[in-house]
Amino acid sequence: MYEKLERRTFLAMLVGVSLAFILLMKPFFGPIFWAVAIALIFHPVQEWMRARLGERPNTVAMLTLLLCLVIVVIPVIVLVSSLVAEGVSLYQQIQSGEIRPGDYIDKVTQSFPAIQSVLDQFDIDLSGLRERVVNAFVGGSQFLAKQALGVGQNTFQFFLSLALMVYLAFFLLRDGSRLVELLIKALPLGDERERLLFAKFAEVTRATVKGNLLIAIIQGALGGFIFWALDIRGALLWGVVMAIVSLLPAVGAAIVWVPVAVYLAAVGEFIQAAILTGFGVVVIGLADNILRPIFVGRDTKLPDYIVLLSTLGGIVMFGINGFVMGPLVAALFMAFWGIFIREFGAQGMELVADPAVDEVRTPEPDREAP
After folding, report:
1. Contact 112, 106 (CB under 8 A)
2. Distance in angstroms (rounded) separating the CA atoms of residues 235 and 220
3. CA 256 to each of CA 84, 182, 312: distance values in angstroms, whole numbers, following the listed order
4. Any idea what DSSP says for residue 248?
5. How far lies 360's CA from each of 212, 221, 366, 367, in Å?
6. How far apart are the first and last CA of the chain?
7. If DSSP states are collapsed to H, E and C, what string results for 256-303?
8. Beta strand spans in 18-84 (E)
9. How much of the chain exceeds pLDDT 70, in percent?
10. Does residue 153 come out as left (phi exceeding 0), alpha (psi in the -120 to 50 range) or beta?
C-alpha cells in the first residue's frame, strides 16, 4: 500500500513539474517551434553532410545551420522588411489622400451597374459594403505601419527570439536523434507507437513547412511578376501579400488579383484585365491546385479538405504558426486513431474470428447419419 502511495505521489509530482515547465517555456513557444521545424526540415541535408564529412557533429550541425540561414532565414527577414516598408508607404499615401480606396470601388460600381442589382437580390447594402472594404484596406495598411513601429521599438526582443531560435536549432541538429531516443524511452506509450508518432510528426512538419512555404513563394513571385509586367503600383507589396494569403488553401492569391482584374476592366484596361485574369487562373491557380496536393497532401497523407479545415483552424488558434500546427494536430489525430483501429480493432476481429465463438454464435445444423 505504501509503495503504491509513493508511486502515485511521484507520478502526480511528475505531471505537476512537467506542466510548470511547459508554462515556463510558453513565452518562447515560437522560437522553440521553429527551431524544431528547422531541425526536421534540414535533417536530410545534415545526413548528406555527415556522409561526406564523417562523424563531426559540431561541424555538420554548424554547416547545416549556416545553410539554413543563407537560403531561408535571411531572405525571409529581407522579404518581411520589404513588406513592412511598402505597407508604411501605402499607409502614408492613404493618409495624405494620394490613394483613395473608395474611389476604386466607385469606379467599379459605375462601370458595372449590374453589381448593384445582384447585391440587391441578396439584400446587401452597397454603401455599407463599400465602407467595410475601405476600412479593411485602411486597417491592413495601418496594421503594417504599426508592425513597422513595433519592430523598431522591439528590435531587441526580435533579435533575442531569432538568436534563441538559431541557438536551439544548432543543438537540435546536433543532438536531435539522441533526444528522440530519450523521449521514446521516457514516454509510456510503447516504443513502436512512439516511433510511429514521432515519424508522423516529422513527416507532417517537414511537408507543411516546406510545401506551404514553397507554394507561397512561387505564387507570390508569380503574382508580383505579373503586377510588375502590367505596371501595377506596389507590385512587391502585392506579391508578398499574395504569398501570405496563399497559405490558405482554396482561397489563396485570388483574393488579391481578382479585385485588381475587375478594377482594370472597370477603367477600360480590358487587355490588362484579360492578361491578369488568364495568368491568375492558368498559372497562379494551377500552381496552387497542382503543387499543394503534391507537396502537402501527398506527404501528410491528409485529404485536401482536411488540410484546408485544419489550416484555417490552426491559424485561428495558434496565429501564423497555425498553418503548420493545424495540419500537424490533424495528422496526429488520424495517426492515433489509426493505431487504435489497427491494434484494438484487430483484437476485436480476432475475438469474432475465434472458432469457439463462431460455434456458439452460429452452430452448424444437425446432419443425418448416412
Report:
1. no
2. 10
3. 17, 47, 18
4. S
5. 55, 68, 14, 17
6. 66
7. HHHHHHHHHHHCCCHHHHHHHHHHHHHHHHHHHHHHHHHHHHHHHCCC
8. none
9. 73
10. alpha
Q: Which three cell numbers stand for residue 173?
A: 541538429
Neighbours of 205 (CB within 10 A): 22
> What pLDDT does 319 receive?
72
Sign of the alpha-carbon torsion through 352, 357, 361, 363 = positive
d(CA 71, CA 55): 25
Backbone angles phi, psi at 363, to 5 degrees: -65, 145
CB atoms within 10 A of CB 41: 18
Question: What is the model's pLDDT at position 92?
Answer: 73
- Average the pLDDT over 115-126 and give the result: 66
pLDDT at residue 299, rounded to an integer: 55
C-alpha cell at 102: 473608395
Look up residue 342 and give its DSSP letter: I
- Cα dihedral 151, 157, 159, 163, rounded to 10, equals -150
pLDDT reported for residue 135: 74
Q: All 3 cell numbers of residue 128?
A: 455599407
pTM of the model: 0.66
Amino acid at 309: L
Contact 64, 176 (CB under 8 A): no
